[in-house]
Each structure stands twice: as structure tokens, then as C-alpha cells.
Known about the structure:
Blueprint lengths: L14 E5 L6 H13 L3 E3 L10 H10 L3 E6 L14 H8 L5 E6 L7 H11 L4 E6 L2 H28 L20 H12 L5 E5 L6 H12 L7 E5 L9 H8 L9 H9 L4 E6 L8 H10 L3 E7 L8 E5 L14 H4 L3 H13 L10 H10 L4 H8 L7 H6 L4 H4 L14 H10 L3 H10 L8 H7 L14 H10 L4 E5 L2 E5 L2 H14 L2 H16 L10 H11 L1 H14 L2 H17 L3 H12 L7 H18 L2 H18 L2 H17 L3 H21 L6 H21 L3 H18 L2 H17 L3 H17 L3 H17 L3 H18 L15 H11 L1 H13 L1 H9 L16 H11 L6 H12 L1
Parallel strand pairs: 1-2, 1-3, 3-4, 4-5, 6-9, 6-10, 7-8, 8-9
Antiparallel strand pairs: 11-12
Helix pairs in contact: 1-5, 6-7, 8-9, 9-10, 12-14, 18-20, 18-21, 22-24, 24-25, 24-26, 25-26, 25-27, 26-27, 27-28, 28-29, 29-30, 29-31, 30-31, 31-32, 31-33, 32-33, 33-34, 33-35, 34-35, 34-40, 35-36, 35-39, 36-37, 36-38, 36-39, 37-38, 39-41, 40-41
Amino acid sequence: MTEAHLIRTPDQRVRVFVSSTLRELAAERQAVREAVTRLRLVPVMFELGARPHPPRQVYRAYLAQSQVFVGVYWQSYGWVAPGERVSGLEDEYVLAARLPRLIYVKSSAPQREPRLAHLLARIRDDDGVSYQHFSDPAELQRLVENDLAVLLSERFEMASREDAAEDTPLAGALPAPATPLVGRDQEVKAVTELVLTEGVRLVTLTGPGGVGKTRLAVEAASRLRAGFGDGVRFVDLAAVPAADLVPPAVAGALGLSSSDSRVITDLESYLRARRLLLVLDNFEHVLRAAPLLAGLLAAAPGLAALVTSRSVLRLGGEHEFAVPGLSLPEPGAQPRVAAVREYGSVRLFVERARAAAPGFELTDSNAAAVAEICRRLDGLPLAIELAAAKARLLPPQALLDRLGDRMGLLTGGARDLPERQQTLRNTLEWSFGLLSPGEQALLARLGVFADSFSLPAVEAISSAPAAANPDQDVPVMDTLGSLVDNSLVRTETRRGQPRFRLLETIREYALDRLRDSGDWTAAHDRHAAYFLTLAEPAGDELQDPGQLAWLDRLDTEHANLAAALSWCADQGHLEPALHVMWVTWRFWWMHGHFAELARFGEAILAKSERLPPYQRALALSATGLMLVVDGDKTRAQRLLEQSLPLFRQAGTTLDVAMVLGNLGHLQALRGRYAQASQLLEDSQALLRDVRDGGYPPDQRLLELMVASEVPNFLGQVRLAQADHDNAARLFTEGLTAARRLADRPSILISLYDLALSTQARGDLTGAGEHLTEGLSLAAEAGDQSSAAYYLEAMAAAAGREDNPQRAVRLLAAAESILEAKGSGWLHAYVPRAPHDGEELAALRSRMGDAAFKQAWAYGRSLGGSRAVAYALHDQSPDPIRHRARTPLRALLTNLRHHSKTATTRRDQVAIQQAVDA
């Protein structure tokens, strides 16, 4: 007789843990106590003993020593301790999952708390729990006494039957995990519900190595055990070397002894009349045995199978459950303990780090590093556990600094793990070894993608010579599909188009393989050539409305385009990289990546001695213009001045005019208006000469750009000198050229400038029209930083119109956007509207402190899209409920498309409400 089935002597009686709120159910607790003691059992109750320990430690210790759980519930959910997510009442129920659970719910509960109602709904849906209602303590006592008597009788009979069998461990028993499962509550619930769904008999848990498929399957199976009359059997196929050896392995797990010739027949006979859950672990390397499983399911209607595999089985009736990584903090999320501890990946790291280094604690000082470690490891439990084990040697920040070499760092897993799971590299080697040569070659090449990628991009990097393409007769789409099936490539949808992605851990492994293959340089060259070509704008894509679609395309491919430019700069392919920099600068500006483009420019400049003079001038001027936006105006001026003689040597007058105009703008920013005026007037004179003498057609866009920006720069000088009429004339001239160019950045500069000068002349209505148009264009293009500057200007107008509440809300919204998105590019080309402390102090004085704080909080809560929706409405305090300006419906429809990544669900609802209004 095993220890688990001992008939206890009176001094070792069965202990019954009683869980309920204490005060509201005091009489009911006494009734349960009397029922337990009448059966000569031991009631384990929180109030019965001295407790020189925290309450949570006490009830956890009590539960660990109990054999039966009795839960009594009425209206209160119970107290949630500081720092905890659930009450002690719910925690007790969850911790008792291994025990028989008898649940009693008091009827008539008009004031039942919502969290308790939710908990009871979960309990009611759990097939492994006894759930009954009662009305008073006397009825409860009778129910508990009867139920305990029946339970003990059933358990005694079960023990007698099992003790009559051989006193050996049960074949195919579920493994008993050494540590609790962390961060998988939703997945366990989803898998158990899927297995229990009518008509579902085969569920395959798929995912890359180390994602936790086995652990999830074991936990789900343990919870499903009560729903299968003949129990659960577990078969580990990792050590089974061939598909034809799977039938004997399954037979062994079922306790059958069969000859090879009869094993399948015996399996079908054994399972035919049974209600049993069969867990088949690590199926990926014996996929040819899938028909066996199909045959068993066909022969045994009461059989269900839960399979773990890195690849789907491709059987009829199969339901795939793709196991995700553990939940991750969002990039840029508040790096505080309270914020990050809610994520499963962080909780797992902390628990395993404490096991390795008992003094480890998650603190505000290390929370950001821990969160980033989890993100960099894609939420993969195996990788996180291997990283956390290093906590005995390295603090989180030092560990994060070393994650550039994941494969070398993440080693030394527990010795009781399979060898393939003791290092991250071993896990990926196992998956890689299951691929065909062609699949291996493609996976290695996919490492060149810095982010998600499309099928045409995969086809472009796969156009290798036959010697480097082992499966050249297999379509690339089919090979890619096989990698998806093997959980090595993930699928997603972006802007309605299918995309593919490698987890970063898999990408690092793929790059190692690519480096070893000899295809490293060729694959990167093909990648760069594809994305530089993709970035090239077609004729109508530099002008509205084609510009928006082009900006969208570049936003989708941003990371890959950046990788392509970086590769070209590193390899000395300077001219194609420089060309793409020039033709794509609008994207980098409007989407806030100008600093990144400036770094590419600096990298090209470092090698620019080998460039012809004109191309070197382009590199100097392009980098200088990026540095204007990035804030390094001194170096920007030096580079622009260095480009001038080279452009003059090349005889490209329009380029000279462009550089003179920007040098004049830099002088104006320093308040040197005389020097600025001279440079800007010289630029205008050159532009007139070019127009009079004619210029090549391919210079048309540059001519219009110079014709737009130089009048604006000169107009800003006149505005600063209070020459409002000439400023307005110059800004109007610039706007006219910008509209002919149909270029959004140029139009945004012109509209902003014209609005300020119109305001200065006292025409608030005209200024409002310019600001409304500019805000609409910026928001439509996803240029949130520029939209914020327009909000500031609209705030200034609202202050002048004696609407301080609106002014404060708009200023707060603008500040919030700029904090989240950065300062953007527009500030480098326009004078900002008043937004300093003096302006805010004046508004506070007009409104009063309480009203100011309320308006400020409201504005900061809006977010980008809702702030734009508010600004474009009339001045009512509740913008969503009032009539919008006529163009708003089309704008907001575009906003939903162009701010997907920046718009929360709350924002989307608000936008839809505005559209509906």
C-alpha cells in the first residue's frame, strides 16, 4: 500500500480546510466545523490557532497539510492585500486545485460583489468541483456532513481497487512538475475549454522550442483528468528515434505488453470502450506516425488526444493551439514594479531569479532592465529561465548588456532537463535538424530581415544560385509555409497584408547559420537591393494623394530599409544609399526618424572621400539638413558651407540656392536677421536666374521646394521684425509653391507660418482656417509631433478668443504628445506659438487653480487621435457630442488607418463616436 493511500489512525485524521469570509459567514463556518467534527475529521480553520506569521503564509501552510477543501461563499469577495491581484479567498481556492473541492454558495445574494460573481462563474464551470446552493446554516451542515461521508467512501473504495493492483508506479502517469506554472492562466483555461468542446478530439499545441508547450499540456491535462473516466496517460516521444516505434511507446504508457505485429490492434481494442485523454509530447520528429493517431481516434470514440509539436500534424479534425510567449510589458511602458509585475514573463524571471539568488528582489531600479530582458527573449519561458539562473552572478542590467550573444549566454539549464533544453542553442539545433536542406537554407537567409517581411521580399532574397539553393525545385512559398508549420516563422497581418516574422531568439540563431553557410554577403546584398528599390518613389508618390500610400509603405518596411542603408554604408555602397536618403527624407522626417537618418548620413560622410564631388556635396548637404532637425545647428552649418563650393563646381544652381536658403534660415534662428536676409535674397535671385534660363525636367521638384521654403524663411525674418504685411505676402507665396509641389512637409511649414502672421494681423478666423487645415494634414499623415505644434498654435488662438479652458486642454494635449513622440521636425522650420511658463501662469490666473488643473488633466488624457478630434470641433467643452466641421468625417476615417500603432482602444472608440456624430 502506498503512502498516499494509507488509512489514517485517529492521530492522523483527514484534515478539512474551510475557506470563507470570516464575519459575514460566521454562523456558517460554525456549522461546517460541527459537520466536520461529527465525522471525526479535523477542521482546519484560520481562527482556530495561534498565528505568529502573516495571514497569507498561514493559510498557505494550512492548505498544504489538508486533504479536502470546503469553500463557502455569499456576497463578499474578501480583502485584497496591498501588492496582490486577488483576495485571500480566491487565492485559497486556486491553491486547493490538487484537493477534492466541495463548494457551497448561499442563495439570495442581492449585494454580491462583481469579483466574487466572476469567481463563482469560473467555479461553476469547473467539472472537477462539487457545487451546491444552501439557504441557512442548518442546511449547510447537513450538506457538508453528507458530502464528506460520500467523498470519503468513494476515496476508500478507489484506494482499495488501486492497492489491489501491482504496487508499481502507474505507466504513462503525468509528470509532476517541480515548480508551479507561472503566467499561463489564460492559456490553460483556453486549452481545457478547447479539449472539452463538443466535437473536438485532437488538439495540437504548437510553438517554437522553449515556449512551454509540454508544461502547458501537463497542467491542462491535470485539470482535465476528472472529466475522463479512464484518466490521462502521458507519452514522451522525445527519446523515440523513429515513427514506427511510436505504437510500442504508446502501448507501454497504457500498460500494454504486445508483440510488434499486434500492437496497433491491441491499442485499438484497449481504447475502444474507454473515455481517456492521451497526451503525446514532442511529436515533431515522428510526424510520419500521425496516421497512427488518426487510426486510434477513429477506433475509439471516447479517446481525446492532446499533442505537443513544433509542427502541426495535418490530420483531419486537428485543432491547433499556437502557444504564445508569456505576456510582455509594452516597449516604453512605465518601468516600475507595480507596472511590470503583472506580466507573466516578469513574474517567471523573478521567481527563477529568487531560486538562483535567494536575495533577489524586483525593484524600481531594476524593473526596466528585467522588462527589457523579457522583451529581448520574446517571452520564451526556457530562455527567461536560463537568463534568470544567471542572477546569482549578474544583476539585471549587466545581464541585459550581455544579451547580444544569447546563444553563448543562455546555457546551464537544470540537469534534470532533457539535453536539448539545457541551452537555448541546443533547443534551436533540435528544431533546425528536423528541417530539409532547403528549409534550413531559407531559415538562415530569413535572418537578414530586421523586422516583419512579405512573401515578395522572401522571394527576392531567395534568388540564389542553384548551388546555394538545395531545394530549387520547391516554390519559395511552400518552403516558407513549412517553416511556418514548424513554428519557426510567425504570421501576422499589417495594413491588411500578410506578413511574416522571426522571433529575435530564432533570428539570432538564423544569422549564426547564415554566417556559417557562406551566403552572408550575397543574402545581405539581395536584401539591401530589394528594399532600396522598394523605397524608390514612383512619379506620383512624392505628391498627394500618392504620398500617403508611399509613407505607409515605408513605415511598414522601416526597420528593413534602415538595415539596408546600414549595410550599404558599412560595405561602401555609398551612392545607392545616398540616393535613397535623398528621395526618402520626407518619410524619416514625418515619422520621427530624422536622427536615425542623420546617423546614416554621418556614416556615409565618413567614407565620402571616394565619392565624386557632386555626390559628396549631396552627402554633406543631406546630413546637414538632418542635423538642423536633430538640433546640432553648428555642425549643420559647417556641413552646408562645405557643400557650397562642390555644388558651384558642379554648376547645379538650384542646389546652391537650396543651401543658401538653409544657411539663411540657420542665421535667422540665431537672431542674425541682416545676414539671414542677405543669404535668403541671394537664394531668391539664383532661383529667378534658373527660371529665366530654364532647367532640366528632373530638377522640377527641387525648384518648387526651394521656391516654397525660401519665401517662408524670409517671411519668418519679416515676422520677427514685426513687418506683418510683407511676412504674410511671403508666406502666401511659399504656400502657393508648396501647393503646386503637393508636398506635405512644405505645406505644413507654409500653413503654420501663415497662421501665425494672420494671427499677428488680428485675423483669428483666417488663422484658425490655416491651423485646421494644417492639423488635418499632419494627423492624416501620422505626423503626430507636427500635429502637436499645431495644437499649441490653436491653444494660443483659443486664449485670444477668451476660451482659456480650451487653450489649457490643447496645450496639455500637445505636451503629452511631444513627450511620447519626441520633438519631431517642424520645430526646426517654424517659430513655435507661445507655450512657456508665463503663458501658463496667465491662463491659470484667468481660470483659477482648480479649473486649470482639471483642464490640464483632461488634455493630457486625450492622446493623439482624440486630441485632434477635440481640436477640430467647435469650442464646446464636450467635443464628441457637438457637430464637427465639415471635413472632419473624412479626416477621422483616415486617422483610424494612419495611427494604428499609436491609438489605444479608447482612442478608437472616441474617433468612431466623432465620425458617427
